[in-house]
Design goal:
Blueprint: E1 2-8, H1 20-23, H2 28-40, E2 44-50, H3 54-66, E3 71-77, H4 86-94, E4 99-103, E5 125-128, H5 133-153
Parallel strand pairs: 1-2, 1-3, 3-4, 4-5
Helix pairs in contact: 2-5, 3-4
Bound molecules: ligand CA2.
């Protein structure tokens, strides 16, 4: 079965416990359930992970890249590392599977330091501001475009 990686960065394990006005009330387990359902509709399986460590996210992107043959792509919410991590941007550039950047909140309607992303230039697409539904939208987008990327790798 084709695989979609869903990678979540720092503090997203706390989802649903604080700042509901910004991030909603859904928990990370709810996010995982939404992803599994969205992927199932495309006949894909989900590898869902969260880490508070930049290096773990980089290692997982490399792992996803190595599994290109069975991978549709990666949905990545890198949390605050989005705005700080050149290394994560480089890791996305280094792999050939498509990566969709997701943010629960509309980062462009928030503080100016959230307007810049080191990841966006390396990503196949971006989904911001749709809350947890954004993960499902990203998975739909991946499923619709993955063949284009697979053909380009041949
Ligand atoms: O909107 C998003 O998804 C963000 O990636 C969330 C990050 C933030 O730094 C980005 O600018 C935008 C923050 C994740 C922290 O998540 C929490 C959720 C609930 C309670 C505490 C933290």
């Amino acid at each position: 079965m084709a695989k979609i990686w869903v990678l979540n960065g720092p503090n997203l394990n706390l989802l649903g416990t604080r700042e509901p006005a910004v991030y909603g009330t859904a928990t990370i387990a709810d996010v995982e359930a939404v992803c599994r359902q969205a992927a199932k509709a495309h006949g894909a399986d989900v590898d869902f992970r969260q880490s508070n460590h930049e290096g773990a996210l980089i290692d997982w992107l490399h792992e996803a890249g190595r599994s290109a043959a069975e991978t549709l792509g990666v949905v990545l919410n890198a949390g605050a590392y989005t705005h700080t991590s050149l290394a994560l941007g480089d890791a996305i550039k280094a792999i050939t599977v498509p990566v969709i950047e997701v943010h629960l909140s509309n980062v462009h309607a928030r503080e100016p330091f959230r307007h810049h992303s080191y990841l966006s230039p390396a990503c196949a697409g971006i989904v911001v501001g749709f809350g947890v539904a954004g993960y499902a939208l990203a998975i739909d987008g991946l499923a619709r475009t993955a063949k284009t990327y697979a053909d380009a790798r041949r």
